[in-house]
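B., you asked whether I could sanity-check this one before it goes into the benchmark set. Here's the sequence:
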Amino acid sequence: MNKQKIQKIAEKLLAFLKTNRTYVIAGGTSAVVVALAVLIGLMVGRNMQTASSNASVNPQTGAETAQTAGETLVVPLEENGHPEVNALIDAYYRAAAEGDVDTLRSLTQGMNEDQLIYLQKRSAYIEAYQNLICYTKSGREDNSYVVYVSYDVKFVDVETTVPGVSPHLVRMGDDGSYYIYEGEVDEETDAYLQEISSQDDVVDLYNEVQVRYDEAVAENEELGNFLSQMSDELTVEVGEALAESTQEETQTQQEADVPKTTAYGKVRAIDVVNVRASDSEQAERIGRVQIGDELTLIENRANGWSKVEYEGQEAFIKSEFLEAVETQEEQVQEPESQQEGGSAPATDLPDSGTIMVGDTVNIRESADENADRLAVCYAGSKLQILSHQANGWTKVSYEGMTGYVRTDVLKVQE
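And here's what the prediction gave me:
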């Protein structure tokens, strides 16, 4: 696999990481970034300028220490200099290889569910991380470290190991134990991380790993093909899982929006619908309600059914055919439809034009959940709204393709 092909893989993975970061020390296009998506140790964008800050000395230890982003010090990398940090990193990478999300949660702060989905999917390809070495620099805060972890990845059914290196921000908690921080940082900390990551010893470390990676791929053509195929498969798998997760969250929110007994007490039928003896479409039909009929709500169930009082007995109706009976003070003026066919779009969606999506969504060939998927549009990507359909779907254009996205899951990134 040639370097152009490798670079294309890295660019694809970097685009994913910009919206689903598993802590990347980055600063726009001038970032020091490792291709963490498959941890192949591929270095991307090594064009950060070297820091030119003055150094100072800690009066207690005699060592150079780091203070603010404007006073960053050129501190040599320490190799395996902190046993507690080494133990944390070892446990993290062992859990990452096993896809153990519970352990990953316990060792990190700021990691969201999307990141955990990504790590879990990636673990299916990884047998183990070997030869871990922790290179550390002092963090901006007290009792914190920037850790550059080098390792060799043993992939499943692949004999040749692949070198890699990944940066992590490690902090101390209130209980005195260390954790890996995966969330956002303030501007000063971000600037500090960029600056120390551009220092010569860190760049040399990345260059060394890059050379070993190039040698491994050059010596084993099958390895290059495997990494390329894995990249494509992992992108699809993660995209599908994220889209499914988004749909489940939307469904959960929709279920939460159905009136509960304690909130409303009364519901109204919005369509002619059967009343059944239990919460199943195969259950005995014991009656039928008309549009506008009001019932007492007993329980709203997560499976999409509502238990109601019907003619003196308990019965069940699909929740989607019910609405809350609000008091006059609770009523909210619904906006007039701006869609084709009279169905209003989500409140944050324009009628047309290009938007940046806030959640990962599937784009399908037609306005149907069972239609073929044309593409996966990740959070942070742009698509063009062509029109809103009356059946709850939005017609869009994405990467030259015309398709459909469920309107209820399409959100604009703020």
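One thing to flag: The longest strand covers residues 126-138. Otherwise nothing jumped out at me.
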